[in-house]
Amino acid sequence: KEKCYKLSLDLKQSTNGHVEALEILLLGLCGVPKENLRVHELCLKSGPNLGSEASEIRILCDLMQPEPAWTVRHVGGADQISVLVRTMVESKASKHVLRLFYLLGYKLDHELLRVGFAFHFQRGAQITVTVSSYSRLLKLHATDDDNVPVTPGIQMVEVTAPASAENYTEVAAAVSSFCEYLAPLLHLSKPGVSTGVVPTAAAAAASLMSFSGSTNIRHSEV
Amino acid sequence: TPKPLDLCSSPSPPINRRQSTNPIRRISFHQTSPPMDGSIGVGQGQQQQPQPQQDQQQQQQQAKVVERLNPAVQQQLNLESVKTRAISLFKAISRILEDFDLLARTNSVPKHDVSSQFSMVNLELYNIVEDIKKVSKAFVVHPKNVNAENAAILPVMISSKLLPEIEADDNAKREQLLYGMQNLSIPAQIEKLKARIDMIGAACESAEKVIADTRKTYFGARQGPTNILTLDKAQAAKIQDQGNALRNAVNHGQGLRLPMEQRQMTAALPAHLVDVLPVGENTQTISESSGGMYMKNTPPVSSNNVNNQGTLMQGSGSQLMGRAAASPGNAGTSSFDNTTASPLPYANSPRSAANMMNTPSPQQQTQQQHQQQQQQQQRQKFMQLPQHQQQMLAQQLRQSPMTGLGQNQLSQLHDLQGQAQNKYQLHGQNQMQYSQSLGGQQFQGRQLPSGGIQHGISQSQLNQGNQLNRHLNQMSGTANSALFNAAQATPNNQMMSNMSAMMTSQPHVARMQLY
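The joint structure predicted for all components is written out below.
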């Protein structure tokens, strides 16, 4: 139930063929085994009864655990730190959290299924890198059915690290320097700005995968 | 004037050329050395700060001098980042070496990921070397003295070369080298040495070429015929668009909102939602404007429907049910039906006391519709009955052995009754409405027809709430909601302190206590 700021930097999305290469690179960089990720994300918005400004809450259900683990996440408005930085507060919750918010008057705005893998490690800060593909749910709450990726072939790479107002700059530096290692494959992008494909991506991916014997980088997508 | 300590790397990448063709100048153990411009070989004049005094100061300032790079060099090479990368590479390599150590000791087979780590290391090394190569002409290694101060920072090879033992070793090697040539004339010796150097140089070149070729084949094998750098504009634009679409979808939910028709509940909820959302219960959706999704036979009640999940407000089962049955005598209830899933199930209200439990009777549903039309009247009546409501509350609490409610909670609730009125802000006649269901998870008949809700919860109430939070944590969701019901939302009503568990204002979200 701790409150923390999270630095979240969206890296350029990588295409499917590069994902394996990215995984190899991350494995080498982080030194920890990957953890698989499967999260049902429900985004709730408050109704008009709860104030003039709608507030948004995300409820995340981690489906990889033996018992589904629920988390509440709230992303705040623009901060003093930077207009591009958002305060994010996360809290673990019981499974009743969804009903709780419904009771409060929150309503489901949209939901997502997120599937991928993550690395948690320590390098100047407690950093988490996730590579995931987001899918829409065709029917309400139908996470078990086949789902349609929002953008087929493109995955989202996110690097996050918890920070407080005091150590924000150090954590930001740690995250940025880590991201430099991903430079052959990815560009660090500002929120809202897409950076397209890195010119060295295919070559870097090829060299990373040359030892693992995997195949097929799809050039049509590059 | 040159500084005694010029921290530079050798002009050629150290890995490829073990036998450097650039001899490292050895000027050992000079205490004061005249400025040696020639020995520096700096192409771009590294040291920028003019030194007022010379020799003695040089030695003394050995360790204190701050090096500055020529700005042009600095542009081409970010020293800090290279240093960081080199250090990390070093750490990665040592980690890999440890792994190999372990493997060697245990005689096990290296796993796939070790080789992948190697490829990463290789790539990173290549990048660092390339970066250094760009500016290596600006640097030269030139230690003049090795002493305690600088021994730690000089690279091992350079510092060791200056130690007397190494020096002796060196001499021995030199003699060995020139062994066969002692008798020849000096120029001949020089010739021979040159030839030898050239041979070695050639060998290095070819080795380098082999490495580069191998690298290229690996690069090239994966590339295929197409040139990777030519992404035609359409493709690049398409990727850009897709990227933006993904970002918008993830951050803002664009393109993910299902239209009304599609928000039908799936036949089977996934496992993690099965016991969270009771079967048959409908979720709240922003785009809904009516309760149409709820029950087939319930007409939309008002335009500003909240569509709460009122069905979640379960009573604590039998007790409340028993109560409902047994409480005929609430003042003012006579005008209301006892059996309805009332649209106004205020715990304190005369009506709700009788209607705390919904029985899923068909009667009920038709009556509901009936009552919805009477809502307005009823609300007005509620507002006029504060005293009664309080009494109801007292009654109910005394009588209902709610799960998890301890004695002190009851007394707290009583206390609340005696306190000043809460500041509920209601819009017009909209009031929060809850319907309760019987114990268990039957929600088919439930309805939360109408009314927007507005609450303002003042801070004092929140503080009170903290006292009850412990108890809340112990209670199940059903009992909780029953408590909540007990503190209903008419004006002039005491707010139950458990409202604090359901803060609605934004800033409090972070402090929410979730059970």
